[in-house]
Amino acid sequence: MRIALRTALAAVALVGTVTASVATATAAGAATTTASSASSSCVATKTVPSVFGGWKVKLVNRADSGASAKLLDENGRVVSTVDQSRTVDPAVGLRITGVLSAKPVFGQRSQGGSTPWKTTAFPALTADCTQRGTLVRTQRLDSRTTAQVFKVAAGHYQARVFQSGKLVRFIDAHGRSGAALFGSRTLVLNPDGTTVTWTGAKTAADPRTGRYELANGAVVKLVRNAGVYGARLTTGHGTFPVVYAKGRPSVQQDDVTLIALGTDGTLSAYVYGKPLKTPVYLGA
Fold first, then answer.
1. Per-residue confidence (pLDDT) for residue 130, from 0 to 100
2. Which residues face 268 on adjacent strands?
3. pTM of the predicted model, to two decimals?
C-alpha cells in the first residue's frame, strides 16, 4: 500500500530537537509515495598516461566533491593529488580547470615555464548528476554548512552542500525526493524544492540487517542484496515496497514518517510531531 501526499512538505530545519513547525502532509487514499532510488552513483573515472614515462593519472569526477586527479608512480603509489582544495601542483605539473564545473579539464606537463599543458577532459557525468538551473536560495544548515538549492524545471530541483567552503554533497530531486547523509546531519530535498533537515536519529554505517523501530512505532526492514542496501517501511498505512540505495541515498515517506537510507546502510529517520530518536534494532 502507498499513500499519496496531498500537500507538499514544508521547509523546516531540525537541529537535535524540533525548532520549527511543519505543515504535515495528509493522506489521500491508497495511491503513491515519493520513494526513490537513484539510478546513477554520479561518479565517473578513467586512467590516462602520465607525461612521466611509466606513471599514470587517475581522473575522478564526482558530483559530491568535483574533479580530482591522482598521479601514480609505477608501483601505484600516490605521488600527488589535485582537487577542489588544491587545483594546481606546479612541482609535478598537475592542474584542474573548472574543478566544480560540469566539464572540468585536467592538465599536465613535465616542465614549467612556457612548456604547454597537455589537456584531457574529465569523464562526463550524466545530466542528472550536474548542477543546472537557477539558484533559488542558499540555506544555512549550521555555522559551517550551507546548501544551495537550484530549480531546473517544474518538479526538478538540485542542491549542493558546502562545508567550510568545500563541496561535500550533491542531491538531485527529479520526480522523487533525494537525500544527503553526512556527519550527524540528514538533508532531504523534495521535487518541489522544499527541504527537511535534522541532526541525529540515525544508525551507524554498515548496520545489521533486520527490523528497526522508529519513534512512532513504524518499522523499517533493512535488507542487503548483492552488496546494495534497501529498506522496506511499514507504517499504520501499510507496507511500502523495498527501495534500494543504489549509488545514492534513497527516501521513503508517508504523511508523518520520513526515512533516508544511505548507500552504506545508514538509516536516518524523522517522525513529524515526535522527538528525534535513533532507529532501534528489533532483530531479524
1. 81
2. 202, 260
3. 0.81
